[in-house]
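Slide 14.
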Amino acid sequence: MDVVSAEKRSRMMSGIRGKDTRPELIVRKALFRKGFRYSLGGSGLPGKPDLVFRRYRAVVFINGCFWHGHGCHLFRWPSSNQDFWKTKIDSNVCRDEVNITACLQTGYRVAVVWECALKGKYKQPLDETIEKISDWLGGDTQMIEVRGKDAQSS
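Slide 15: predicted structure.
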């Protein structure tokens, strides 16, 4: 059973942002300070990546661990309405895989930055996280994932 009323839960859920999230802003500002220029939203690209670096033919997805079913300490299956959440999160994970593959097939390199890399008890130092992304942008590796120290992809 949920610990808050349905009305309160609805208000809480409607306040969750889909863009300009705190993790996204942290990464954007840090990369901009390092001299990287990007566009936002990735319209026209599969999955609408959060950051598009056309100069590097690279995109960055900044994923929330809950919404994208990441197997880390920040992800817990909800105890109420389990069928809905299982279907919802599983479809998000499947869509992520399809979008990443499609981006790679269009010639873009892909980075996935997980929320657990930026917050929680196993977060990476921000300068290390940004350095990983910077090194990747300057290299030729097709795909990287940046996650918290204990996180295992699911």
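Speaker note: The chain has a mean pLDDT of 89.
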